[in-house]
Please model this.
Amino acid sequence: NAGVTQTPKFQVLKTGQSMTLQCAQDMNHNSMYWYRQDPGMGLRLIYYSASEGTTDKGEVPNGYNVSRLNKREFSLRLESAAPSQTSVYFCASSRRLAGGSTDTQYFGPGTRLTVL
Amino acid sequence: TQLLEQSPQFLSIQEGENLTVYCNSSSVFSSLQWYRQEPGEGPVLLVTVVTGGEVKKLKRLTFQFGDARKDSSLHITAAQPGDTGLYLCARSREENSGYALNFGKGTSLLVTP
Model:
């Protein structure tokens, strides 16, 4: 059981380049999320997918797109990278309990992205 | 956005000392979670508190949910170097949605031998 996996672990891009961050979970979770973490800012939600086939914007969606490829995989794409997108990106998943109670989010190890 | 304010932002203590970190909101929330993040890793859930006034213990960590459900605290007794990390509180972005979370900015704790 690998939990949540993310690739790549590190990436350096030049301004204007594009790339896709990959995320997969093997826990049969319904919901998946992408967060970014900047120094002193905690984690900020970029996009989330409550269930397969649906995606919604989070707190900071500008400059990003997502695809929920299937129940296991949720990718994050930067179409034209900017220095402001230098950050650590975390993918997470959760079972999504019935009744709306808060459930546990399981995080991947993160992707450290630098945009020059 | 439902803001969560965490304090202090940074804390550096010696092994064996006690400490308390806080998480506050201007609005009532139905539940609150505490996560710990070690350097170079993703956050890991420590506890979920649901009931106003609730106290939960996890070894040397004591979590309390305020009576009015607007604040929470984490107390560590006899801190150890293994407690070093970033402590984050989080709540649901929308009440009764249960899934996406808003996080506080965190308290960065350093425990030195």
User: Anything to note?
Assistant: Residues 20 and 74 of chain A are 10 Å apart (CA to CA). The two ends of chain A are 36 Å apart (CA to CA). Chain A touches chain B at residues 4, 31, 33, 35, 40-45, 48, 50, 56, 58-59, 90, 92, 94, 96-97, 99-105, 107-110 (CB under 8 Å).
